[in-house]
Design goal:
The complex is a heterotrimer of chains A (about 100), B (about 170) and C (about 300). Helix content of chain A is about 0%, strand content about 50%. Chain A has strands at about 5-10, 15-20, 45-50, 55-60, 70-75, 85-90, 95-100. In chain A, the strands form 2 sheets. In chain A, strands 4-3-6-7 form a 4-stranded antiparallel beta sheet, with no helix packed on it. A 3-stranded antiparallel beta sheet of chain A has the order 1-2-5, with no helix packed on it. Chain B is an alpha+beta fold and about 170 residues long. Chain B has one domain (about 15-165): Immunoglobulin-like (Sandwich). Helices cover about 20% and strands about 35% of the residues of chain B. In chain B, strand 5 and strand 6 (about 120-125) form a beta hairpin. The longest helix of chain B is centred in the N-terminal third of the chain and has 15 residues, at about 15-30. Chain B is globular. The chains are: A mainly beta (about 100), B alpha+beta (about 170), C mainly alpha (about 300). At the A-B interface, strand 3, strand 4, strand 5, strand 6 and strand 7 of A face helix 1, helix 2, strand 6 and strand 7 of B. Strand 4 (about 55-60) of chain A pairs antiparallel with strand 6 of chain B, so a sheet runs across the interface.
Chain lengths: ~100, ~170, ~300
Amino acid sequence: MPSTIRVRAIAGSDTTEVQVLIQHPMDSGFVKDKNGTLIPSHYIETVTFAWNGKPVFTAYWGPAVSKDPYLKFAFKGGKKGDPLQIAWTDNLGQGDATTARLL
Amino acid sequence: MKDDTVVTKGRHPASRRQVLHGIALAGLGMVAGGAGVLDAAWPAAAAVPASGWPQQAFAQKSEAAALKALYGLAAEPSDKVALDVPEIAENGAVVPVSLTTSLPDVSAISFLVSGNPFTLAASYRLSPGTEADVSCRLKMAKTSDVIALVLAGGKLYSTRKQVKVTLGGCGG
Amino acid sequence: MQRGGSGRLSRRLPGGFLASLVALLCALAPPAVAAAANKVDPAADLQAFQAYFHAAFPTVALDDFANGPYAVNQDMRKQWEEIMQFPPYDFALDAGKTAFATPFKNGKTYAGCFPKGGIGIRQDYPYFDAKSGEVVTLDLAINQCRVRNGEKPLPYGSGEIAAIAAYMASTSRGKPFDIKIPDDPRALAAYEDGKKFFYTRRGQLNFSCASCHVQAAGKRLRGDILAPALGILAAFPIYRSAWGGLGTIDRRFISCNAQVRAVPLPPEDRTYRDLAYFLAYMSNGVAIAGPGARP
């Protein structure tokens, strides 16, 4: 099964820029399907980022974050090859995790 | 026309995922230690459950109630918070928002959408050394304000901008 | 008025007739495209078609027309560029790459059905197939390949076929459309059929394809900016957030037709293939930019 997490983390001279795209329906719970039945809410609640094992950024999301969510942030430091650990969990208790290397 | 796409929508057997998740969290050391680091900069009044996900704040229907549940602080409008949103969203389901600020010691950034059923859309916690420069994509139910909140040096700052959400003519 | 073509013409023809002829020509926008209607001359049509869009959007480079509304509207372009920083079709593109390389039950793969192993060939589709006497689109060729190898054809419009077409398009990025219309009456008839469909009004709204994508290109239709017809196929398949995934050219034709309250044709209908042939030929020279994303 391919990873649900896409990462592009680029270490610059001073900071590292991180971009992620996560494959997830992010169903809000307000949308009906073709038969008129409400699609139950299903969304990522938490995404954690750790650089060299040290937390750098945590995202708390609700159902108003778009489908296949995208996120960009930056942190000070980081060099090519450093591990960046990313994990998400959703409101149904599902989740995924990956470790990317800084480019 | 079938509206399904090739994406598997990330629906995998929960059991396997939960196992994965457990491994991931243990590996990251985020269950206890990680959260502790982040919590140091957190206002004492805010109700943060053990998992860290601010459940109460996400359940609020008004801006004021969400703000109270999230930080327990009043926000002060600030021109040092730069919020970049489109004037007219091409699609309310995908509105790019980004925020930068020159304020020092930023420990949290949140985005609220005043016209959504639940106003809080996303809340981010930054460790010391993380830049106050965040972009994401939000859903907006109708034309309303996007409110950005920045927690810096224990104080809460805000800025807001209106985004027009129109009906597409041919988006289908 | 004494020398030159128009002077001689005005001496021979009554002034009133000339005036009404000029008025008639002016009423038909774009004049050059309409003027070529009675003779099948694809090359002349192409020249007039592209000249019309260059005149309407003098600052837009030819390749940029592949980007549809974002070529002609700055505010939309900014949102699109942000989306393109990490395009949402990334997952589907990977799934398409995997599907493309996965062998059929007989051990063969898609690569065996296409020239150059299917890599970098999107710009040559649709093409006129002299054997069947019909236009073959990339989507049709993908399914023909499956059938030839004992597999069931994929449903058109979205899903796996869109993912495979997206992967194939991605290997052809930057290569300009190079559609050929051979000197074969059947090929010319297919071209004419596509052209006729493009300019014919239909549906309760009585719109032709050209009503929106030629005459009103770059203008707003409620919240949307109408894409110019030039280059309109170059970014397909397209990820539309409104669709929540990738959609093929068929899917777009069908929803466009439905939105003008006309009865859409079935996907890969012969006339839709002819339409794609006409549109792709009109875009000759525009570089492939697919898959694309529209918010």
